[in-house]
């Protein structure tokens, strides 16, 4: 008869399990790379050591290999953001982390040329970016006053304040707001005085035909106006500007950015008494008018889709007079 000491076997199996379990490969959960606003960073690089580089998905996610040592250093690199270094054990304890935007001059990004974010250096056509700083330096209150200062653009008065580019009239220049065409032309001219500048982040001036993207309306070029959006969890501001001819510009906005929701509301009221450079002629050269603008934007970004809703309102009241002939005697007619 043979006797088996089960206690020894129990001890042996227990020690064997302690040695094997830490080395077992368990599937790791995806880890998401985001910016300060919670948006994914799909162009980041995940560098392990000196040779291995992991790919990052369009949603900013990647997965760590199962055979990494716990103290393995992992470097996260993304253009425009500060580099971060983690140990493998640190990344296994989180499902997402943020990269801080690098302070410094970044290459300008354009939307109008290809309807996608592209660097100016990568575009096959001439593009001019009018930044928020340049807009403030002009002192303008309406879009026409900003574009009037730009080389190669001519602001003309034809059924409103229109624009000429490369010798072509307003009929061949497309005006876009956040990448979407604006409507409301009169005789082919979109009145640039309708657009307030206090909530404009930048203006993209695209010269040359882009009919493949926007149609035949862009034989001369396109003007894309990018408005502000919320960058803080909650922010609000008021702005007032006054100049000659009793011209007053009042603006206010409020925004929220949290839980992947971005909400922004804006209101502007502009009024002027106009001016007259020919007092001997009835009526004023620039008509007195009042204009009100309201804009509302809401967006929700998830891992799979990006929802955006825009709404914009504009109303204008203008008064002027001109001489008309009637039964031999000229008289004034209100407009």
Automatic annotation (TrEMBL):
The keyword Transport applies. GO terms for molecular function: siderophore uptake transmembrane transporter activity. It is a multi-pass membrane protein. The keyword Signal applies. It is found in: Cell outer membrane. Residues 120-222 form the TonB-dependent receptor plug domain. InterPro entries: Plug_dom (IPR012910), Plug_dom_sf (IPR037066), TonB-dep_rcpt-like (IPR039426). GO terms for biological process: siderophore transmembrane transport. Transmembrane segments: none annotated. Pfam families: Plug. SUPFAM superfamilies: Porins. GO terms for cellular component: cell outer membrane. Keywords: Cell outer membrane, Membrane, Receptor, Signal, Transmembrane, Transmembrane beta strand, Transport. Belongs to the TonB-dependent receptor family. This is TonB-dependent Receptor Plug Domain. It comes from Cyclobacterium lianum.
């Amino acid at each position: 008869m043979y006797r088996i000491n089960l206690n020894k076997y129990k001890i042996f199996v227990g020690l064997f399990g302690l040695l094997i379990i830490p080395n077992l490969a368990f599937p790791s959960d995806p880890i998401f790379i985001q910016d300060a606003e919670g948006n994914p960073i799909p162009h980041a690089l995940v560098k392990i050591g000196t040779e291995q580089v992991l790919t990052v998905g369009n949603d900013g996610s990647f997965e760590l290999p199962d055979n990494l040592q716990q103290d393995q250093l992992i470097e996260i690199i993304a253009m425009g953001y500060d580099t971060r270094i983690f140990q493998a054990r640190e990344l296994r304890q989180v499902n997402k982390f943020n990269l801080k935007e690098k302070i410094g001059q970044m290459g300008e990004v354009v939307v109008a040329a290809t309807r996608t974010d592209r660097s100016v250096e990568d575009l096959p056509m001439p593009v001019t970016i009018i930044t928020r700083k340049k807009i403030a330096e002009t002192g303008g209150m309406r879009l026409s006053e900003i574009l009037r200062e730009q080389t190669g653009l001519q602001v003309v008065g034809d059924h409103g304040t229109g624009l000429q580019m490369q010798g072509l009239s307003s009929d061949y220049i497309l005006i876009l707001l956040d990448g979407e065409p604006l409507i409301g032309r009169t005789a082919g001219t979109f009145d640039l005085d309708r657009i307030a500048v206090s909530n404009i982040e930048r203006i993209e001036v695209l010269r040359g035909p882009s009919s493949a993207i926007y149609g035949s309306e862009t034989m001369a070029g396109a003007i894309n106006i990018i408005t502000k959006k919320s960058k803080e969890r909650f922010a609000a501001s008021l702005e007032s500007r006054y100049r000659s001819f009793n011209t007053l510009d009042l603006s206010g906005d409020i925004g929220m950015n949290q839980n992947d929701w971005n909400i922004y509301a804006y209101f502007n009221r502009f009024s002027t008494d106009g001016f007259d450079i020919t007092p001997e002629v009835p009526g004023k050269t620039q008509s007195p008018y009042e204009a009100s603008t309201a804009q509302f934007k809401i967006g929700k970004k998830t891992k799979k889709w990006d929802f955006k809703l825009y709404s914009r309102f504009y109303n204008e009241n203008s008064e002027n007079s001109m001489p008309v002939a009637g039964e031999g005697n000229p008289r004034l007619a209100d407009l």
